[in-house]
Each structure stands twice: as C-alpha cells, then as structure tokens.
Specification:
64% helix, alpha/beta
Length: 382
Amino acid sequence: MENFILKLGGYNTEHENRERISTYASMVGVISNIILSVVKIIIGIVSGSVSVLADGVNNVFDVMSAVVTIIGVKLSKRPPDKEHPYGHGRIEYLAAMIICIFVFAVGVQFLFASFKRLKNDTIDSYSNLAFVLILVSIAVKVYLYNFYRTIGHKINSTPLLATGTDALGDVLVTSVVMVNIISNKFFGFHVDGIAGIIVSIFIIYSAFSLIKETITDIIGARPDEDMIKELKKKINSYDHVVDSHDYRIVSFGPEDKFAIVDVELPHHMDIYTAHSIVSEIEREVGDEMNLRLIIHIEPQGMTSEKYVRANKKIMDVIGRVDGFLDYHDLIITSETISFDAVIDGNVVKTSKDRSKILDRITYEMNQVIPGYKFLIRLGERF
C-alpha cells in the first residue's frame, strides 16, 4: 500500500506532489478508522462496555482529525490576499485546536462515565466475534503505525509521523480494552470501569498534549536547531559572507516559514555588490529550504581606532556581566554607540531579568566609554 500511495503522488520524480501523497495516506486512515469506530461502537453498545465505547469514539475523532487535516491543508494553500498578506497557513493550527478541544471534552465525559461504571460494578458480556474484532483492530492499528511512519519519513512529513505515533497510542489503548474482554470472558474478573478510566485518561492526555503543541505553534515555536545549522552552513558558504547570526524563523503554517537573518559582509563593500549577494542568497537558499528568506546586512571588519577601542571595552563588559554572551552590529556616531547584545536565554528568563541586564550593560558601558548615549538591543541565545 505504501508503494502504491507513493507512486500515485509521483514520489522521487520531477512530478512529486507531497500534498497529494499526504492526502492519499490520510484517506487510508480515514477509511480504516471509520470501519473500526463503527465496529467498536456497536460492540460497546451491545455489550454495555464503556471502555470499548470510549475506544470507538476515540477512533471517530481520529477520522475527524484526518478529515480536518485534509481540509486544513487545502485551505492553507490559498494565496495571500488583502486581509491576510502572509497567507492562510495557520488555518491548520486553528482546525487542530478545535478538534483537540472536542477530544478533550469527550475524554472527560468518558472518565466520569467510567467512574460511575466502577462504582455500580455492572457486568458486561462479550461474544467471540467481539473478541476477534478487537484483536483485528489492534492488528490494523499496528499496520497504520508502520504505514504512516514509512511514508512520513520518505516525504519528510511531520503530520504523518505524528499520526503514526497516534496510531501506536491507539494500539496501547485498544490493548487495555482487550485485557478487559479477556478478564471478563475467560476469568470472570470485571475491570471495565478501570479499563475505561485508563482509556479516558489517555484520550485526555493526548488532547492536552496536542492543544499545548498547537498553542506553541500559534504563539511561535523555537526554531529547529538542525534547520538553523543547515541555514547557517548554506549562507556562510557564499563568497564574501563573513558570518551570519540572529536567525529569527516565524511560521505562518507548517509549510510557510519566514526566516530573518543578519549577514556580515566586508565594511568596504559597495551597496550594489552587497545587494546583489544578499539577493542571490535570499533567492537560492530560500528556494532550497522552502523559506521566505529576508537578510539584514551588517558591515564587518571596521578597522578604525574608535571601533577597535570600543570592541575591546565591550568584550571587557561581557566578561563582567553574567548572562551577557556576545554582541554584534556595532555602530558609532559622534553622540551614540549602538549594538545588539546577545544574552543567555537560560539565565535571563523574565521581562524583569531582561530589564535588569539591560540596565547593567548600559551602566557598565557608560563607565568604560563615557560621554556617549548607548542604544542597546537584546537578543537571546538558548
């Protein structure tokens, strides 16, 4: 099945379409989960088992999540317009948030139902067919786990990899239900309430984790370290680029990212040449990494006496101020000295901490270079 889906999407060819591959793979999950949810809900209603019913409803939300993901991907591909100049990529995050809230509510509802079942100690009855169907359900989920992981790795799709992880979690949940069926049918030991509580807690935990992850995406997650390393390596490989730093990557959707980078070029370079270099980097590296790359130029290698002297003084202050790691973008005029101070984000954690270290750096700079107004911006390094 994996090879068939990849072939339909033109995998590893010039016509490769990741969106199509992802959609087809999601449809396989939709169909599988529809069948599983119908079977489990029927078994749960007939047997009176709250754990089986909860597991079936969990599969219903797997279907809804897949459908919403497909719709979200389609809507997120809409081009920018007057009201949304940065595109519609974050629609995926909003859709995911809605589903997560519903899943969380269902998990809480079944948790209360399971406690009630545990208190009433109601006895369930399962047929041999129910036992076989639940066993088949586990086998299907194991297959879906491998299916999503295989395709996800091949097309580098985080959503598919996450769906595969969710399928593995479903295996564990359904296994708990299976334990309940076995204990009832073969040993006469009733644990449906306990099994329902375990299933409900897993549903609530999964929903909470996804809500937290989605909120992080909406607020702005920390850029991936591997992406930053790759971006830095590519940018620094260009002729005349001395170094690059301050990588600010903002996501407007899973496949719509802006990257703002400071690039150091020789201070004696003329504006036309510098503009040509950064334009080439923005175009080529941006296309290679699927980023909207924006570069801020910084002059490097200022050799005049005032810059050399200021550099030495700033380095002395760095040595005295805890959490002050580095600096860049030094500009000196007749009245002001400005630079960007790199601070340790693991030490300077709050707004109060930032205010304190800014005051401390400004005070120390006034002591070593009096007579100037200091304009200092803070940037974290974690």
